[in-house]
Design a protein that fits this description.
The complex is a heterodimer. By secondary structure, chain A is mainly β. Helices cover 0% and strands 48% of the residues of chain A. In chain A, the strands form 2 sheets. A 5-stranded mixed sheet of chain A has the order 1-9-8-3-4, with no helix packed on it. Chain A has a 4-stranded antiparallel sheet with strand order 2-7-6-5, with no helix packed on it. The radius of gyration of chain A is 13 Å and the shape is globular. Chain B is mostly beta strands. The chains are: A mainly beta, B mainly beta. The A-B interface holds A 30-32, 34, 41-46, 49, 87, 91-101 and B 4, 31, 33, 41-45, 48, 50, 55-56, 88, 90-92, 94, 96-102, 104-110, 112.
Amino acid sequence: LAKTTQPISMDSYEGQEVNITCSHNNIATNDYITWYQQFPSQGPRFIIQGYKTKVTNEVASLFIPADRKSSTLSLPRVSLSDTAVYYCLVGEDDKIIFGKGTRLHILP
Amino acid sequence: DTEVTQTPKHLVMGMTNKKSLKCEQHMGHRAMYWYKQKAKKPPELMFVYSYEKLSINESVPSRFSPECPNSSLLNLHLHALQPEDSALYLCASSHPGLAGAYNEQFFGPGTRLTVL
């Protein structure tokens, strides 16, 4: 399973765009890249998933370069409620391994 | 219904007790999971059931015993736990993974377990 590396923590301000980059140098051909969000004392919540290029949904965008060795989660115009831990996962099938995650703290 | 429910929300047990955690989903998912999460750490996969059969056991001690009585229910039976087993236990469900694909997992809110 490919290992992921993310920044341990990030701070940003309300209204800003936040980009969290995840490194996954050993990603396999069949692996997808998935991001989850977790608030304290809650289960993780799926945000977005992609395989290559760019994926966008109503809450985030995911940018994946051609070599797929990294990916960037982009959160547009964050608010205080986006303060959470964000996990980047790489894998396929049923077995997924959570990395250490990025603790995002949004300031007023 | 896109919800995974877990009961109880909180559980305190002694090292000699036997208790069970329950998880339920009605999304038609045929894969269900147990994770353990310690404070300020990522969730760690414990067990995976696919089509009601145990498909992955991540070398979990036998004092944790999973059970999947039907496609909607997942139990985790606990016996002779240690204080270091205190954690948030998360259940999740998804459509079973296919080679070359990964399906979104829906997580429940977890059971906060304290072992005295």
